[in-house]
Specification:
alpha/beta; Rossmann fold; 13-stranded mixed sheet; two-stranded parallel ribbon; 17% strand; Carboxylesterase_B_AS; EC 3.1.1.-; hydrolase
Length: 495
């Protein structure tokens, strides 16, 4: 029988009303910070203003300003949400918690992906009810994106999106006990840009003590920029908008005009050089907006910070999918349409030794687009994740998802984002004729992956040995076993 009763919980800011359904309590769109509008738009996250009485929490709420782009033949809404829902109060979180049983429960806090420019906590594949069903308090958060979250505008605190995530984790530390969670047993997990953010926060002095464990899905700590390099993006956007490259200049632009400018500057044809002092572009053109290092939040590049011992008290589970770049280059047709010359032109914008990279990945023996796709899977995702594991001084486990989606006539394969429906055990949300997983994905794999995440969050346990530079144990999810993984060809071309 379905229980649709309501329940109230008191927080420091006031009392909130949630819902109980099928033995799971759900508190939706609960604010963890003040609305980032008006004078607070380009300010560090501020505490929520207190309220009187019981606050009813709507099931749907505002999201950070964003604009989705269609992907041919693929339904992306279950993966990233429905796009921008206008409204001021979007620094919010959802909580799912078991309605009965013995408290306190382990806590898992999810940070969504989307290239730091799109996405929300409300995407269908990220339904935290599946974790609450299995004895976890699951929290999912929104944070500032794009210009408002990740553009180092002079006079504005850097890395506002990361500061939002830290504020949400501080809220969880202070408030989650009232919802049945254990504030001393928090695991933060995320995918893609959300995983990049988590990898950065593992090394941040401002996030120290806010979580015990971290799960980094298709992310790592190498996607940050020098502030001076990111300022080129500030100047480019200001020129497009016809404003001064200052806080007041950007604050004078409404959200729609800002999204227009973000769209223009994100085009592959946009003329902007975001290579660092080493001649590399660490994001490979996937997004213009990423965190910067060299501030109080990320004093050092994350890999350097790891080597110095930052985050060694955090247990880390980090992994990738075997064919990450297929998501970007298969649906668009790019993988099978371009030859070696165009592949070189694309790669040299980010990698100074582009010809050598493509040769190492089989250019000449296979079509240039396929060599580019294989190379970028390793350069952008897989090898930097292994480098994170190598440098982290704490306990680190590495996984790889090698299950291949049958979508796009079997060509999508083990692409970026494929793991999330398995992690959340929400296969139905991503299945079907235009689903990321195609038809009939294996439920048994979802049961196993979901349980691995729960066990790790509960007490840190995993059924394979930690990763180190010598034994290099990587757990293959579909095979269900760990094995030695040799360094990739990409190792010769990245720090």
């Amino acid at each position: 029988m379905t229980d649709t009763s309501q329940i109230v919980v008191r927080t420091a800011s006031g009392t909130v009303r949630g819902r109980c359904r099928d033995g799971i309590l759900h508190f939706a769109n609960l604010p963890y910070a003040a609305a980032p509008v008006g004078p607070r738009r380009f300010a560090a996250p501020a505490p929520v203003d207190a309220w009187d009485g019981v606050r009813d929490l709507p099931l749907t709420g505002p999201t950070a300003p964003q604009r989705l782009r269609a992907v041919p033949g693929l339904d992306i809404e279950p993966l990233v949400g429905t796009g921008w829902t206008a409204g001021d109060d979007y620094l919010t979180l959802d909580i799912w918690t078991p309605a009965g049983g013995e408290r306190p429960w382990p806590v898992m806090v999810f940070v969504h992906g989307g290239g730091f420019v799109i996405g929300s906590k409300d995407a269908a594949v990220q339904d935290g009810a599946t974790f609450a069903r299995d004895g976890i308090v699951c929290v999912s958060i929104n944070y500032r994106l794009g210009v408002d979250g990740f553009l180092p505008i002079p006079g504005v605190p850097t890395n506002l999106g990361l500061r939002d995530i830290i504020a949400a984790l501080g809220w969880v530390r202070d408030e989650i006990a009232a919802f049945g969670g254990d504030p001393a047993n928090v695991t933060v997990f995320g995918e893609s840009a959300g995983a990049m953010a988590i990898a950065d926060l593992v090394t941040s002095p401002l996030a120290s003590g806010l979580f015990r464990r971290a799960i980094i899905q298709s992310g790592h700590g190498a996607m940050t920029r020098e502030t001076a390099v990111a300022r080129r993006l500030v100047d480019k956007l200001a020129k497009l908008l016809g404003i001064a490259p200052t806080r007041d200049g950007f604050a004078s632009v409404d959200a729609q005009a800002m999204l227009d400018a973000v769209e223009k500057v994100s085009l592959p044809t946009a003329r902007i050089d975001l290579r660092g002092s080493d001649g590399r572009e660490p994001v490979f053109g996937i997004s213009r907006f990423v965190p910067v290092h060299g501030d109080d939040l990320l004093p050092l590049p994350p890999l350097d910070a790891l080597g110095a011992g930052a985050g060694k008290e955090v247990d880390v589970l980090i992994g990738t999918n075997a064919e990450e770049m297929n998501l970007y280059l298969v649906p668009s047709g790019v993988r099978d349409r371009i030859g070696r010359l165009l592949a070189w032109i694309v790669l040299r914008k980010s990698q100074p030794r582009a010809w050598s990279v493509l040769k190492a990945y089989g250019a000449g023996r296979k079509r240039g687009g396929r060599a580019l796709t294989d190379a970028m899977s390793d350069l952008v995702f897989r090898w930097p994740a292994r480098r994170f594991a190598e440098e982290h001084r704490g306990r680190t486990h590495v996984y790889e998802l090698e299950w291949r989606s049958p979508a796009f006539a079997g060509e999508l394969g083990a692409a970026h984002a494929v793991e999330n429906p398995f992690v959340f055990d929400t296969l139905a949300a991503a299945s079907g004729p235009q689903g990321l997983l195609g038809e009939n994905p294996p439920q048994e794999l979802a049961i196993r992956m979901h349980r691995l995440w729960i066990d790790f969050a509960t007490d840190g346990s995993l059924p394979w040995a930690p990763f180190d530079r010598e034994t290099r144990q990587v757990y293959r999810m579909a095979a269900g076993e760990a094995a030695y993984e040799a360094p990739m060809p990409a190792a010769a071309f990245l720090p």
